[in-house]
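Hello forum,

I keep getting stuck at the same step: I have a sequence, I want structure tokens, and every attempt I make locally crashes halfway through. Rather than fight my setup again tonight, could one of you with a working pipeline run this one for me? It's a single chain of 188 residues.
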Amino acid sequence: MSTTDALIPAQAAARLDDCTVIDVRTPGEYASGHLPGAHNIPLDHLHTALPALRAAAARSTLLMVCASGNRSTTARTELAAADIPATTLTGGTTAWAGEGHTLHRPDDAAAVWPMERQVRLAAGALVVLGLTVGARWRPARWLSAAIGGGLVFSAATNTCGLAAALAKLPHNQPRATDLHATLRALQD
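Reply #2:
Ran it on my machine without issues. Output:
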């Protein structure tokens, strides 16, 4: 299969057997539903996984997946910089499930909200907190302004510091043994 920048869900479904699927979401998001056969390598661990991904790319096309396509596009860009060809799933698991394709979930996995939903909750809660406390102590309103500014910066740069901070929470952290097992499986 030739490598393209992106595949729509129908194309990916037709070619799934020819791909090594790499889900770059947090382990909690991955456990909430992932493409069949997907391996979980969180985006912030991608650099560590480069040798395993290079070996996997030599055998089949790497299909990078996230919830919406933003993080997988970032991953594909990082891989391209390391001369590792990859493609992304347009619209991510959201589009995949929206077109009626199956998402796999481990039986024992706890459901974790997608990162974008976690960011919306945290940002909204901080804005409300800043406005509520700001009614009694005016300087607290700067918290709301800072969050608003951060959201504008996030949109302009297509990065998200709040998502990076939330990814460090325990429910979003990979278990070291899982990541090491994934890397070993990709190199075999």
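The CA atoms of residues 134 and 140 lie 5 Å apart. If your local run keeps crashing, start a new thread with the error log.
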